[in-house]
Amino acid sequence: MIELNPMVIFIAAIFTNNMILSNFLGMCSFVAVSKEINTSLGLGQAVTFVLAGTSIINYLVYHHILVPYNLEFLRFIIFIISIAAFVQLIEMIMEKYIPNLYYALGIFLPLITVNCAILGVSLFMIIREYSFLQSFAFAVGSGIGWTMAIVALAGIRQRLKRATVPKGLEGPGITLIVTGLMAMAFIGFSGIVQIQ
Amino acid sequence: MNTIIISTASITVITAIFAVLLTIADRTIGNYGQVKLTINEEKEYTVDGGSSLLSTLISEKIFIPSACGGKGTCGYCKVQIHDGGGPVLATELPFLSQEELDDHVRLSCQCKVKQDIKIEIPDELFNVKEFEATVESIEVLTDTIKKLRFRLPEGEEISFKPGQYVQLKAPLYEGNDEEVYRAYSIASSPTEKTHLELIIGFVPEGIATTYVHHHLEEGDKVTINGPFGDFYYQDTDAEMIMVATGTGVAPILSLLNYMKDNDIKRKARFYFGAKTPDDLFMLDYFKHLEETLYDFKFVPTLSRIKDDDTSWSGEKGRVNNAIDKLLEENDNQEAYLCGNEQMIDSVVKSLTNKGVKEEKIYYDKF
Question: What predicted TM-score, i.e. pTM, was given to this entire model?
Answer without folding.
Answer: 0.62
